[in-house]
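Lab channel / #folding
Pinned by the channel admin:
"Please post every new chain as: sequence first, then the C-alpha cells as a reply. Keep commentary short and put observations after the output so the thread stays searchable."

First post following the new format, from NK:
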Amino acid sequence: MLNIKKCAIIGCGNVGATIAYTLLSTGKNLFSEIVLIDINRDRANGEAMDLNHCLPYLSPVSVYAGDYKDLYNAYVVIVAAGANQAQGESRRDLLQRNAEVFESIIQKITHFNRECILLIVTNPVDVLTYTALKISGFVPEHVIGTGCVLDTARLKYLLGERLNVDNRNVHMFIIGEHGESELPVWSGANISGIDLDRYCEIEGTTCSVHDFMGIYEYVWDSAHEIIRGKGATYYGIAQAAHRILSAIVNDENAILPVSVLLNGEYGIHDVCLGVPSVIGNTGVKHILEIPLDANESLRLHQSADMISELTASVDLSRISYRGTDTVFV
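Reply from TO:
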C-alpha cells in the first residue's frame, strides 16, 4: 500500500534540493518521509544531512538519502534529474540529452513502484512528461509535468506589479509549451473577477496590448535572464512543484496549468501540454477546456504541433543512460 505522506525526489541538484527544502519549510508538512536519490550518492547524503539540521526549528520529517528500492511505497515520485541548461541554450536543445537520462530513471522507478504519481520537473518538461508516460506505461492521470505553473506565476507577479495590485488577485493562465511557443490567455484575464480591460478603465490606467505583450515577453525570457545572473533557477520552480504536490496530498481539486496528455481536448491529440487541469489525490482528475479566442486557439494548436514534432524526434530505442542528476528550469 502506498503511503500518501511519503515522496521521493530523484535528482539532488539545485532544483531537487530546493524542492526538498521548500517541502520542509512551509510550516505545514505535506510529507512525513522524503527520500533523496541521486547518481552521486555523496551529494544525496550531504543534502539529507543539511536538511535534517533544519528540523529542530521545523516539524518532524524523516529525510534520508536512499536508493530506488526505497520507492516501493512512495505516493509521489518527483523527477528533477537531467542535464544542465547552459546559458543561451534553449529547452529544446536539452531534449536528447535529457531523454537519455530518462529511460533509465523511469525504468528503475517502475521496477519498484507502478502505482505512484510521477511529477516531472526536468526540461523540456512537456516532451519528457510524454516520454515518462510512454516508458512507464502508467495511466495518463498519474504522469504530470510542472508545465506552465511557473510561467503563470511569473506573469501574475509582473502583471500585479504593472497594475499596482496584489498579484494573488490576478487570475489568468499561460498555456501550451513550457518554452518558446507558450501563450498567455489574455481573453480570460481578470482582477478578482473584473475583466482586465474593465479593471484598467476603472483605475484610469493604460492597458494596451503592447504593454501586456512586453510583460509576457519578459516572462518568456525570465529563465534565461536568471541563468545569466546566477547560473540557475530553482526557487520559483520549487514553489510551483510544492503547489502541485499540495493539491495532490490535500486532495484540493486545484486548477493548475500542468503538463498533461491531451487526447481530444482543445482538438489536440497525443501530446503533453500545459493546460488548466483539476489536480487532486488521484493526480489529474479532469482537464478543463477554458474559453480561448480564435488567435489563442490557433497558437495553442501551433504549440502542440511543435511539441509533437519534438516528441517524435526522441528515439527511445537508441537511448542509454549517461547523464547527471542536475536540472535547470
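NK: Residues 318-329 have pLDDT under 50 and may be disordered.
TO: also worth noting, The domain at 3-147 is CATH 3.40.50.720 (Rossmann fold).
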